[in-house]
Each structure stands twice: as C-alpha cells, then as structure tokens.
Input
Amino acid sequence: MESLMTEMAENNDLLKPVLIIIVSVLIGLVFQWFVFWLLRLYQKRKPSVLKEQMLLHLKTPTKFLFPLYFVHVAFFVLKIDSFWHTAMQILIIINFAWAFIACLKVAEDVVKEKFKIKAHHKAKDRKVLTQLRFMKSIASVVIIILAISAILWNIPSVRELGKTILTSAGVVGIIVGVAAQKSIANLITGFQIAFTQTIKIDDQVVVEGEFGTVEDITLNYVVIKTWDWRRLVLPLNYFNEKPFVNWSFNSKKLIGSVFFYVDYTFPVSELRTKLMEVLEEDPLWDNKIAELLVTNTDNRSMEIRATIGAKKSADAWSLRCKVREELVGFIQNNHPNALPKIRGMAAEEA
Output
C-alpha cells in the first residue's frame, strides 16, 4: 500500500509541471489571439497599411513567441533545471529575432505602399525604395548576428571559449579581415549605390549588352530582370568597376529615334503628318516630343529621322517599333516609287 501511495505521489509530482507547462502554452496562444483580435477589430474600424502589414507578418512569429515566454515564466515558478532554462532562452531569442525581422518587413511594405512604383514614378521615390531595401538587409544581418551572439552568451561553455578568443582578438581580426575582403568591399559598394544612386530599384539599364529592369539590390548582388524575363545576377562591385547605361537615372522618360531612307522625290511633309497621326493614337507617347527631319543626304537617298518621346524608357522600344512599322507601311502603300533605288543611264548608241 505504501509503495502504491509513493508511486502515485511521484506521478503527481511529474504531472503537475506538465500541466503547468501545457496551461502556459495555452495562455500564450490565447493572449496572442486576443492581441490580434483587437488589432483586427481596430483595422476594421480604422483601416491602415501599418495594421494590415502587422497582421500579415507578425501573426506567425508571435504564435511561438508568446507561448514560449509564458513557459519560460513557468520554469521559474517550477524551479526547473538550468539546462531547460537555457534552452528556452535560446528559443525566445530566436523568436525575438524572427519578430524583429518581420517588423522590418512591415516597415518596408508600409513605405513601399507610400512610394508605390507606377508608370509616372519619380526618381526620388525609387531612391527611397532602394535605400530602404539596402538598410533592411543591413538591419536583418545585424539582428541575426546579435541573436547568435546572445545565444552563444547564454551557453556557459561557449562563453568561456569566447573570453579565451578575445585574448587573441588581434590575430582573429586579421584572419577574418583577410577572409572577408570581398564581403566588406561589397558592403561598402552597397552603401555607395544606396546613397549615390547610380542604380535604383526599377531603373531600366543596359548591362553586358542586355536590356532589363533592376529588380532587387542585396548586400552581395544586383538582380536585373531582362526584357524576356531572364534574370541577370551581377556582383555589386560590377557597378563600380564597369560602365553601364542607365536609361532612367533621373527620369523614366526616354527619347527614341527611327531612321528611314527614301528617294529624293518623296514628300517629307506627308510622312510628318502621318507620324503625328500614329503617335496621337498610341498611349506610350509622352505627348511632347515628336519631330521628323531630313538629317542627311547622299547620291542615292535622303535620310529621315523620326524622334519620339516615350513615357517610360521600357516602352521606348515598343513605340519605336510601332512607328517604324506604320511609317514603312505608309511609304509602301502611298509612295512605292519613292523607296530607295539605284539610278543608271544607258550610254547612247554610237
């Protein structure tokens, strides 16, 4: 009978902490649900991008963070072994880092919504987005490094090892510095790009003979989305060491040219009128720049240049192709004899 009572007491001693931990987890989940219920309610009454993004990005991290915190408090009450305290602290640090990175994403999306890229987007707005993207990357790296440092500091054996390493920090610093030369160079280049703005998010550029749009700028590389949706990935240092063409450095508008070669008998004024008709019907035209001039002549033909302005540099190619097709068709249909030809004169018979 005594052995049975002893076994029941031991089981009761084991059951009590398990129940407390389960209750702590449930309290954490209920608390998280209540906080986000209030946030959703506030969002319905007074909608905002900030609350919308908080609901989107912070919901998952806090589902783990709140229960872990309440379980950690329960460990203090139950006086559980220090090993489990350390394990719980490590999990909480990881979740805090996750939540902070999610907060960075919230801030990024709020700013992006304010400076949303549209057809008429200004260069200064893209400058803000580029700097924001780079600073978010830097902040994420800092948060991860701090989280790893805090985790290691909570492990006693590793903390002692850290003190030993600090005594030879000069040698370690030299080794790390040499090993991380390229990474440091990329980081410095990233700061230069973010604040000197040689390239920005959504810039139209020509790199390595490829036309594309700057899709992303990270701490190590730049992603260019080409016109056929391929991705050209280049290291940050490339943009400091090699020349490239930025079609939208200060403005997205771009001027394009189309050349035609016609006979001297061709009526230029009719082609000028046709050019205006084509442009007035095309939404890609900027409604400002439209000019048709005879820019050169030789012993066979006239060179005619049509200069047109596009609202976006990415649309300049399409607009040029449209103008070229329409005007060539006009010449073929209305003045086929004015197409370039080689004249010859037969020698008179003796």
In short: The longest strand covers residues 285-297.
